[in-house]
Specification:
single chain; mainly beta; 8-stranded antiparallel beta barrel; 1 helix
C-alpha cells in the first residue's frame, strides 16, 4: 500500500511537469532560494507511545521552475529535526529523542494571485536519510525507574535504529510576496512518513514507527530567469 501511494505520487508529479512543458503560454520562471523555520514532530508508534510534539529546526535550499501560468515544480535539499517527546503524565520524568535528517522533496507547485501577492500549494513525494540521532532524559535508560504506567514500552529507550532511509508524502500551503521579481514566502507543511526507522518484523517490538512532522518556514527566492 505504501509503495503504491509513492508510485502514484511520482506519476502525478511527472505527468504534471510534462504537461506544463507541452504548453508554453507563460514566460518561464527560474528561481533559487533558501528557507528556515521550525518543525513539530511525533512518531506513529504501533503499539502506541504517549507523547507530545517535539520542537526542532528545519532549513535548506530550494529550486523552483515555473513553465506554465499557475503551475510549476519545486525541488529542495533540507536539513530537518524529527523525533518525539514522551509524555509521562504524573511521573516526574522526561525523555526526548531527536532524529536529524537530510531530505529531498520533489513537489508539484500550484499558485494563484497577481504579480505582487500569490497563494500556493505544494504536494509530492520526498526521500530522506538520517544522519544522526540523540536523546535527552533525566533517568538512567539502562536502569529504569518504577513508572506509574505499567503498560509502557520500556524497550524503546535502548532500541537501535534499523532503517535510516526515510520516504513519504509532503504537502503544504502558503503565501508569497513578490518584491522586484524576488519573493518572500511563508509556508506551512505536513509530512506523512511511510517508512519505519525501527525494525517492524513480527519478532520486533514495534509493528510501525513512521515520522509525522508539521513545519512552518520563511523563505526567500532569487529570480534567475
Amino acid at each position: 500500500m505504501k509503495k503504491n501511494i509513492i508510485i502514484l505520487l511520482f506519476l502525478f508529479t511527472f505527468t504534471a511537469v510534462f504537461h506544463s512543458q507541452a504548453q508554453r503560454h507563460y514566460k518561464p520562471e527560474l528561481e533559487i532560494g533558501a528557507k528556515f523555520g521550525t518543525s513539530f514532530s511525533r512518531v506513529s508508534f504501533q503499539p502506541s507511545v504517549k507523547q507530545n510534539m517535539l520542537l526542532g529546526y528545519e532549513g535548506g535550499v530550494s529550486f523552483r521552475y515555473i513553465e506554465e501560468k499557475y503551475f510549476g515544480f519545486l525541488v529542495e535539499l533540507n536539513f530537518v529535526q524529527r523525533g518525539w517527546k514522551e509524555n509521562f503524565e504524573e511521573d516526574p520524568y522526561s525523555y526526548t529523542h531527536t532524529l536529524n535528517y537530510v531530505e529531498l522533496p520533489f513537489m508539484t507547485h500550484i499558485f494563484f494571485g497577481n504579480r505582487h501577492v500569490r497563494g500556493f500549494f505544494n504536494l509530492g513525494p520526498q526521500i530522506g536519510f538520517m544522519i544522526s540521532d540523540s536523546y535527552s532524559t533525566n533517568f538512567d535508560i539502562h536502569n529504569l525507574p518504577d513508572f506509574t504506567r505499567k503498560n509502557k514500552v520500556n524497550e524503546i529507550y535502548t532500541m537501535p535504529i534499523k532503517n535510516r532511509v526515510d520516504y513519504g508524502i509532503s504537502g503544504g500551503a502558503g503565501i508569497e510576496f513578490r518584491v522586484r521579481k524576488n519573493s518572500i514566502l511563508l509556508e506551512g507543511r505536513y509530512y506523512f512518513g511511510l517508512a519505519d526507522f525501527y525494525g517492524n518484523r513480527k519478532k520486533d517490538v514495534f509493528a510501525s514507527s513512521p515520522n509525522q512532522t508539521i513545519s512552518v518556514t520563511l523563505g526567500y527566492m532569487f529570480h534567475l530567469k
